[in-house]
Every structure is written in structure tokens, then in C-alpha cells.
Amino acid sequence: MYDYGLSVMEQYGLTVKSSYRGRGALICETQRGLKIVKEYRGSEKKLEAQRKLQLHILESGETRVDCVLENEEGKLVSSDRDGIPYVVREWFTGRECDTKSASDILEGVKALARLHSVMQMPLEENYRKESLLDECTRHNREIRKIGNFIRKKNSRTDFEMQLLRCMDSFLKQGETAVEQLERSGYQELYRTAMERGSVCHGECNQHNIIWTGGRPTLINYEKWNYDVQIADLYQFMRKILEKHNWDTGLGKSMLNGYHSVKPLSEEEVLNLKIRLSYPWKFWKLVNYYANNHKAWISGRNSEKLQLVMRQQKAWSEFLKTCFSDFLFSSDTL
Q1: SS3 label, residue 84
Q2: Low-confidence stretches of the chain (pLDDT beneath 70)
Q3: In angstroms, rounded to a whole number, what is the distance separating the alpha carbons of residues 284 and 288?
Q4: Which UniProt keywords apply (predicted)?
Q5: Rounded distance, CA 333 to CA 320, Å?
Q6: Strand order in 25-30's β-sheet?
Q7: Could you tell me which residues come within 8 angstroms of residue 310 by beta carbon, excluding any fewer than 6 positions away?
Q8: pTM for the whole thing?
Q9: 163-180 residue pLDDT tens
Q10: Which has the closest alpha carbon to 311: 260, 238, 226, 254?
């Protein structure tokens, strides 16, 4: 019988009193509190660096962390009776950040700022995030390539026609973002972040911010990397603002909330604006199309594309107004 990793708990000296499934993992109540066990196929070396990062955060006293545990042999990865590798972490009871609650969102963004204040460690080149300039340039090239591919087709699906109708507009936005990155101080911002060993959570969204013990805590550090920490703030803001049709007031509250805990430089605010101006959702749909069966595209993707198009006006207005009065000259931002 498949035990979902339950048998590895004995390698940690843990006795499981009860267990239940949760988000692709097994949550276990033990004599030493809640633990979570999950199948692991990643790099053990990166996992060691992740534990080092999490212990550093714990030592700061800033927040709780779902720290990776060592088994009784001092190893971070344990195999069950069938040879399947698992990782065991600390776990907490709590609820996810409510995307409809302004107070949840604001406290979540402040928790992220507090976390960023202590998330630095010596750079390990293997875990450096690709330059944003390189990434956006590559994505623009991919959008252009797919556009040329569709135009050469003799017959096109409805989804392909929809992509073509708005492709030039979104591609122009992508190219403008690259031009702005080249003119901004991004390269220096990125270089400084690498010198400082600035670390990002890597997957900052409402699912990974939970309320436990009366305060927000970030969990699931598997995608951590070295990058400009604005990348995390951008990711959280975009996830929230898409759900709120790019509400400018909410965007300003999030920006000011982060700034109140970890002050932002002019270069960081400009970088955040450029990140938010890139058409990531459109690129994601193009990328999905490029890597899947062309004859049939899920209707869900057509709905996503239509939503992106419907939100374009609100998105454009947000970019014009959210940053214009934030500490710095509107000529710059």
C-alpha cells in the first residue's frame, strides 16, 4: 500500500499520532508537533542551502519558518520502503491570506518586507536568477516567433485568431519594458543585489502566506533564488491586483505598506513599475500554446486571454497613476 512517505517518519525519531493529506503532501501530528512530508525530486545541494537560509531567518527571530529537518543520520532527504525520496519540514496550522481582505493583504506585504530585511546570504552562483533584462528580451523573441508561425498558417483556430488580434499591442508593451530596463538603473540594482547576497522567496503568493499564531508567515521556500527582492513584491502585487482589476488604491496601499517596513529606493520603485508593465500573462498564454498541441487549445485559455484583454484599460490606468505621487518625481516614474 502506498504510504505517501509516512514510513520515513521513523528515520526522524517521530511517532505519527494522526495524518491527513494537504496540497500534495502529508501533514502529520507527532510528539514534536506538526510536520509535513512531501516527495522530493530536486537538488540535495540546493536543499542544504535552503535549510541554511531558513535557519538564518529563524535566528533573526523575525518569523516562523517551515524549516527542512535532518533525519537521525543528519540527512535532509529520506527514502521510504519503496525507495521514493521525501523531505520532512516543520508545519503550522493556519489559514491562507484572504485575497478579498485589505487588512490581510497589507499585513502580508509587510511580512514580506520584514522577511526581506533578513534574507541575505553569500552568493552561490548556481541559484542566481536570470537577469530580468535577459528574461524579458527572450520572452519578446518567443512572442514574435509564435506570431510569425501563426501568420504563416493556412488555417487558424479561434484561439490563434484571438492571439494575433492583440499580439502586436502586447509585444509593443514588452519591447517598451525592455527599453525602459536598458535606460533605468536595473543593471546596477541587479549587480548590487548579487554582491549583497539578496535572496527572494521565489513564489510569493496568497497560498504561501498563512496566518498562524495571529501573524502572517511565509511558507514553501522551494523556489528561493538570488535576485532583486522587488521580484517578490512584484509577484505578490500582480497576483492580488489581477484579482482586483488593477485597483490603484489597493496598489498604493501595498506599495506604502512595504515601504513603511523596508524603505524602497527610487531605482527599486521604478523597477517594480517596469515589472508590472510587462505582459507576463499574455506571454504565459503564448508559451502554453507553443508547448502544447496546436489543433486543440482548452477553452479555459481563451477565457484567460479575454480576461487579460478586458483588464488592459484598468492595467494601463494603474501604471499611470499608482506610482506618480510615490515619493519621487512623476517625470522619473
Answers
A1: coil
A2: 1-3, 294-296, 326-333
A3: 6
A4: Capsid protein, Virion
A5: 9
A6: 16-22, 25-30, 33-39, 85-90, 78-79
A7: none
A8: 0.92
A9: 999 999 999 999 999 999
A10: 238
